[in-house]
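Notebook, p. 212. Picked up where the previous page left off. The plan for this session was modest: take the two constructs that came back from the sequencing core last week, fold each one, and keep the raw output in the notebook itself so nobody has to go hunting through shared drives later. Recording the first one now, exactly as returned: residue sequence, then the structure token string.
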Amino acid sequence: MNLIIPGIFLFILWMVKIIEVLFNIDLSVFGIYPLAIRGLPGILFSPFIHADFGHLFNNSLPLFFLGVALFYFYSEVAIRVFILTYILTGLMVWVAGRNAWHIGASGLVYGLASFLFFSGIIRRHFRLIALSLLIVFLYGSMVWGIFPGTYENVSWESHMLGFFVGIVLAVAFRNRGPQRPVFEWMEEEGEIGGEGEEEKLELDDEETKGLRDKEKKG
């Protein structure tokens, strides 16, 4: 499952591009065109459409790596996170994007990267934090893609909105999936601390009674 779903998704992306080239057709009309009825199907189809093989290749490697990481570390919520990132990013681009055709899976890439990074930080799980740091190391430069004008002919709206969706989902699913482990020594410390506090309260009560007796005698 960790490799199957990301692998199948990537296979479909490449097959779509190969068919487009072999039959000399332009599928960009199936992209997202904001606030237009004709652009609504792009919410579902735009991630499968790329301008050229360079565009497809640039999205393929991070998409596969992030997809595998999502299904491996967050297997309990992976499918829901993947689908929600896919749909919500496309929907928000349709609502808030520029009047142009938006194509490519980069919004999904930014959404998954954002979810994996912030989810690890929020959960404070050492393995997931290590994954967060790895993502920063590998794809930290991607953050510049969320700003307008950084890259030419690139849908920075898809990047920014995908990034935002990833943060929202990291917060929404923070209590689902892997959680920070609680070790036995942490529980023992809690129990010892609790007993100490009870003893202290008992001593305080005895001291208080003693003071009251002295006041009565005085």
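Okay, moving on. Second construct, recorded in the same format:
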Amino acid sequence: MKRLGFDWPCRAYYWYFSKILDKSLFDDHVNTSDRNSFLTAPELHVIARWLRETKCMDIMISMYRKLDRSEKPYKVVRIYEYTIIYEDGDTSNDMQDWDSYEAALSDAVSYCLNYLDELRKKKEEKE
């Protein structure tokens, strides 16, 4: 995200000695000789806001209900999907279903960041 210009302050971060952290994250971003280094870890809603305010990419998460007939008694489940609205009004929708709002938002954010990274790479190749 730093390559794309993200420089907003974050409340969350990764520390090198964190037990749940993949140490390879630090190899690419931090001088590994400094074991007291931190990596910022922005929350999904912060990234979505940054995409909206700086890159003009709005993420819309929709929820609908679906009858699950796989087991009796039947139950109604919530299904989430996302739509990305670009600056020019164009939209993209993966048409995939997720079980939670957070999963749909995470996938939408990943899609946007990958899209922006591809645009950045193409721009660098031209130069």
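Notes on construct two before I forget. Helices lie at 24-29, 44-54, 101-126.
Flagging for discussion at group meeting.
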